Amino acid sequence: MQNLLRWFNNAYMYFFFRIRNKMNLCHPRAGGDLMRFPLTACGNDGGSFIWLYFFSFFFTFFLSMTTYAFTVSGFSQPYGVVIDPVTNQIYVSNMNGTADVKDANGFISRLSSEGALEMLRFIDGEKLSTGLHAPKGMVIVERKLYVADITALHHFSLPEGKFLSDIDFGTHPPQHLYDIAVGPEGKLFAVDALTNTIYRIADGKAEIFVQHDRLGQPHSLLWNASKQYFLVAGWSSGEVTAWDLQGKQKYIPSLLLKTLEGMARDDREQVYVTSLALRSLFRIKPTFALTSFQPGIGEVTDIGFLLPKKELVIVFSEKKEVTSIPIPKD
Prior knowledge:
Elements: H1 2-23, H2 46-64, E1 70-73, E2 78-83, E3 90-94, E4 107-111, E5 117-124, E6 138-141, E7 144-149, E8 152-157, E9 163-166, E10 177-182, E11 188-192, E12 197-202, E13 205-211, E14 218-224, E15 229-234, E16 240-244, E17 249-250, E18 260-265, E19 271-275, E20 280-284, E21 290-294, E22 300-306, E23 311-316, E24 321-326
Antiparallel strand pairs: 1-24, 2-3, 3-4, 4-5, 6-7, 7-8, 8-9, 10-11, 11-12, 12-13, 14-15, 15-16, 16-17, 18-19, 19-20, 20-21, 22-23, 23-24
């Protein structure tokens, strides 16, 4: 449907400019406002010009509309999302308060793959002895759910949601964990925004993998198995950078935006990244071509890819909603 609308819009724009040039319309009066249509200077056929303009606007408007597969509301400062690779259930982290306050009232919600809310408080911080304060990024590995929670990285069993333990950070404790990713051999990697650090986690213990200002206060981390490097989305830098398994920065074409938050990859190796300041969702092609995927969609904190349905699951923290958007085939 959207491809058809694009075709109509392009056709109208073509005839729009052909007729405008033929009629020599829209030349502003001397001293007139260049940003206004000089209707009285367009001649007797000015009405045709205006109608063509509004037809073009009509189709462009529908092209910009977002079609949601599902929308679920009722969350409390939702932040992160992860999709179970086995059941396709969707888990959403709720900060339920300020992002950096340890108030023990955060929780994890669970949705079905169809977007039905199964349990609002699947894991409830108020019922945990360790607390769950402001949970953010999550990952699922071997039927365990790992959750980044300010200075702690918890993990829970699935499907029960039973607390198991916290990761040991030893003498290098984090200050504000934002995201977790699965790297090679099932090892976990986590990013700390305040210290510009990537941790490598194995056997329940964490060590510093990368610590560099070029990380730009990382808020999201993504492993690219085909390229054998991590992509990091920097909050303060607004830049997507790449880091190999030796902890060295890899050269990739400049991908500079603003206040980056969440990232996700689809089954065609396309990467999606959100910008809070620009209130938009961008797509990065395997060739590193950067395109606007959902301009002006709103403040999105995290995204996930629902493989069976070829949809992006999107967290709107400001609107306290979780929605899904089908990915077009083009």
